[in-house]
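Z., the sequence and structure:
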Amino acid sequence: MIRILLVEDDKNLAEAIEDHLKKEGCLADWCGDGEQALAHALHGEFPYDVILLDRMLPVLDGLTVLKAIRQKQIWTPVLMITGLSGLEDKIDGLDCGADDYLTKPFHMKELSARIRALIRRPPDMAAAFELSAFGLTLDTERRRLSHKTHAVLLTGKESGLLQVFLKDPERTHSREELLWKVWGGSCEVEAGNVDNYIHFLRKRLKSLGCTAKIRTVYGAGYRLEETP
């Protein structure tokens, strides 16, 4: 059974989500503030498969909770749920370690699809522990990407995408291929998600100061290559 930590201070919304998750066969624990959420997330005896985390919370906000979880080396997939829909708001959440971002209001079917995508880990992604190309090294277990003396932590989907590129550098990968390999080909996940995460990955590479770039090959897809 899938075990989910639901962190949401809106009681009515939390009850609706909890009822839906139970119908989907999931076991959900609900917390109404950030302090309770952190205590539940750090409780190692009963690990969660997914954490649904509201950003605006009493006591401790969602970003603070997320940062604390990641600092404790807890890599449970986190789906951040919030009414903040701006691009920078999404980037802030993903930079803090969220794996995906869902804006309110949302349909319960979309919530289920995103949860399925988060817990689905294609077998070929788990095989390699460390991948390297163009001076980049990715620790696939810790999702740590390094270049020389600099390093950044990636989200689950960022790491999955980069694994595809590092396993076969300088080859063009179509959006459909990336969607299948990273999201498991789920028909509920839009191909536009690939473009969004490519954007996030490009920011990661730029922050490392490396010469590797993800190039858009128009009409074909994306390719990781080294620029002079």
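The domain at 123-226 is CATH 1.10.10.10 (Arc Repressor Mutant, subunit A). The chain has a mean pLDDT of 85.

Let me know what you think.
H.
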